[in-house]
Amino acid sequence: MNFLSYFPILLVSSVVSCTNFDELFQPNWAPHHILIEGDYANLTLDSLSGCGYESKKKYLFGEATAQIKLVEGDSAGTVTAFYMSSEGPNHDELDFEFLGNISGQPYLLQTNVYTNGTGNREQRHTLWFDPTIDFHTYSFFWNRHFIVFLVDRIPIRVFENKEENGVAYPKNQAMGVRGSIWNADDWATQGGRVKTNWSNAPFVATFRSFEIKACELEPETEDAEAKCGLSKQLWWDKPSLRGLSRHKAHQLKWVRARHLLYDYCKDTVRSKELPKECV
Known about the structure:
Elements: H1 21-24, E1 25-29, E2 34-37, E3 40-45, E4 51-55, E5 58-69, E6 78-85, E7 93-99, E8 108-114, E9 123-125, E10 136-142, E11 146-151, E12 154-160, E13 176-183, E14 203-217, H2 224-228, H3 246-259, E15 260-263
């Protein structure tokens, strides 16, 4: 079963779904650099500023999706992000970060997982398409068992709950859904060797077709376990959604074999002793 198409009739009131930007989101950084046209959000980076947006509410468990068309041409030094994050220094966070490159070279997609303020769980992939020509779909699915990063409904990464091994897992902090574009030429392209060419500015990334089908925690002081915890009434906790289907597992294996460039779990130079979740 394709778990992203599984959405039973028995819904709870905490699940929302909407595609209009203004209903779900608000600018949180440089609003004058964001142009909203119905469902479309055009985020602009120039030599003065980048910009960003965030959801008006926060969520715990479910699915968050957006379609994105990335900066065309020479995008070296730029980063476009679609991510989820809670607040504070001990925050949880799930990241899609698109690392720009010089014309003719592929975009790199970096994903990361933060738990209780600790990240350093990067993976980098190439994509099997040009993400600047048309819109493609990027999704987070997460429950108390695992987190899945998906591109056009194909899983590219799974982060499993391994709390029994002493690994922190993001299951208690509600996260907002966010997007941004900014200058990161100190690291984003070829380790910072290629800088942003501002003569190509403005750099524009366009987001559309937003969907959030998740447990809404508002205010954040609500009892997360009581509202978003294990229940047969909550679609993300169904037994069929506690692991990848056989088909999805084959897709993940294909992506890892052909498109995975870097995995922190394989980086023995950076970490002499691999993180517990990698064992």
